[in-house]
Amino acid sequence: LLFHAADARLGAKNYAEAIRLFRDVHRRWPAGEMADDALHLATEAALLAGDPGTAAELDALFRKEFPESGLRLPQDLLAGRMLLAEGDRLSAVDAPEGDAQAKTAYEQAVQAFTRVQEQSAIDQTKSLARLQLARAWDRLGDHEQALTTLEPLVQAVGRPGAPDEARTALAMQSTALLSLKRYDEALEAATTYLRRPTNGPERAEAL
After folding, report:
1. Which residues of 12-51 are buried (b: 16+ CB within 10 A; e: fewer)?
2. Measuring CA to CA, how many Å separate 207 from each of 114, 168, 202?
């Protein structure tokens, strides 16, 4: 019941309370069936809350206590997202070394997402890793590589059972094409996306 209460707080975007309850699950039942799930979701809650320090602490604890967890690759996906967020923070710093440090963080994110994509046997995890990998390439300014990464997802659009990740990829494709000044193709991708949008932040990009 405590785990489900924590998960409900996460769904309601009450991240601080979700973290507290997930920590409590881990503290009470450190060898329990849901202990690794609790630390994994607590890490996600901290990341969504914009609390990189807590996210890093929880990630380190997860890796120390559950190195063989079946959630290892989803945790690597979170770690990659943490690197993207760190790169964004560093790129906003008005200092000569900020851009170089941001580039390093983005390159490490590429490695993390590539590893997840190559090693996961779960289609949704692979699709999520592909989306995040494209974001990392975009941050590095390699829009051609972002397009190449997105292409398998874009090709799935319109097929029966196509995941939301495929439609999200359309909006990201449009943004990458726009960055390359391929305006007609960008418009076509955005229009296709808007016929079947997701509820993510990419909708605003396509508009």
Report:
1. eebbeebbebbbbbbeeeeeeebbbbbbbbbbbbbbebeb
2. 29, 13, 9
Do the beta carbons of residue 48 and residue 13 sit within 8 Å? yes
Which residues are CB-contacts of 30 (< 8 A; sequence separation ≥ 6)?
65
In whole angstroms, how large is the CA radius of gyration of the chain? Answer: 18
CA distance 113 to 62: 18
CA atoms within 13 A on the CB side of 197: 13
Choose among 20, 129, 40, 123: nearest CA to 84. 129
Give the DSSP per-residue string, 60-92. HHHHHH-TT-TTHHHHHHHHHHHHHHHHHHHHT
Residues in the chain: 207
- For the stretch 134-183, pLDDT in tens is 999 999 999 999 999 999 999 998 888 788 899 899 999 999 999 999 99
Q: Is the pLDDT of residue 20 over 60?
A: yes
Spatial distance between the Cα atoms of 183 and 169, rounded to a whole number of angstroms:
17
Residue by residue, DSSP assigns 90-150 as HHTS-STTHHHHHHHHHHHHHHHHHHHHHH---HHHHHHHHHHHHHHHHHTT-HHHHHHHH
